[in-house]
Amino acid sequence: MKKILQVEGLSKSFLLHHAGKHINGCQKISFGLQEGEFLGLTGKSGAGKSTVLKCIYRTYLPQEGHIWFYSREFGLIDLARAGEREVVRLRQKEIGYVSQFLNVLPRTTAREIVELAVLDMGYEKYRAKQEAERILEHFELDRKLWDLYPYTFSGGEKLRLNLARAMVKKPPLLLLDEPTASLDNASKKLVRDLLLKLKKEGISMLGIFHDLEFMEGVCDRTMNIQGGTIMPERVGGSCHEGRLARPYQHLRQ
Questions:
Q1: Where do the domains of the chain lie, and which CATH numbers do they carry?
Q2: Taking every annotated instance into account, which residue ranges of this chain make up the domain ABC transporter (predicted)?
Q3: Which strand (E) or helix (H) includes residue 131?
């Protein structure tokens, strides 16, 4: 099994200008992720879990460390130092991100939002239409909503649309920031079923979930983040501490 991601010594802090203080988001974080593996991040709110994901997605620019990603287009690339052009391309085709919140262009329907995600991958319009309909049906979004603007949707409907937009691409790396936070149990099952399917297809995932029962059987292992640093823990006996900080030597050679 090949590594797709290796984070080494990742640190990110924030300056509160009005108070003149630095807040540590994460400190010296190191871990690896294999192809087709699901790694779950656990910990209290404010522990630094989302900071790690946003540094990988490059919403945040890290102050220290490396984020080595094995890209299909660029080969081995350090996301901590990649240029804006590379970051945009990777977001379009190789790295997906799902949060609790849906941010989309105004006057874009639910169907169009998902179709545009497929078109980003380079597929034709007919394929985008087919894939959009397939995944909207999977998430049981009422067909009456498909051609409406999402600002009219409930919180749960927006979240299901957000999941559909990211998962329809089947990116090599999928980042999940509390994607089931406002879903009912039936909707959570739909998410779980699709995550398991994506795992079988070799998609690598890094996710934050506060519902530990949901994670059981989905995550291969977890890491607990406390005060911006990680403490490995076990899920189903499958968390191996020795795998968390191996360098990316086989890809750099």
A1: 37-62+92-243 (3.40.50.300)
A2: 5-252
A3: helix 125-138
Give yes or no for a contact between 157 and 141, defined as CB atoms under 8 angstroms apart: yes
Q: How many CB atoms lie within 10 A of CB 14?
A: 13
Q: List the structure tokens of 95.
A: 């790295």
Mean pLDDT of 7-36: 87
Nearest-angstrom CA–CA distance, 244 and 99: 24
The three-point CA angle 183-58-6 to 5° equals: 90
According to the per-residue pLDDT averaged within each range, which of 129-133, 180-184, 246-250 is highest?
Answer: 129-133
Label the pairing between strands 38-42 and 204-208: parallel
Spatial separation of the C-alpha atoms in residues 8 and 36, rounded to whole Å: 20
Write down the pTM of the prediction: 0.84
Distance CA 54, CA 61 (A): 8
Task: State the DSSP H helix or E strand holding residue 252, giving kind and residue range, or none if neither.
Answer: helix 249-252
Tokens standing for 159? 């979240």
**What are residue 24's DSSP bridge partners?**
13
What would the pLDDT profile of 41-70 be if each residue is shown by its tens digit?
988 888 899 999 999 999 999 999 999 999
Q: How far is CA 70 from CA 91, 95, 157, 250, in A?
A: 14, 11, 34, 11
Strand partners, 204: 173
Comparing CA positions, the residue from 242, 194, 243, 185 lying closest to residue 218 is: 194
For residue 113, report the phi and psi dihedrals to the nearest 5 degrees.
-60, -45
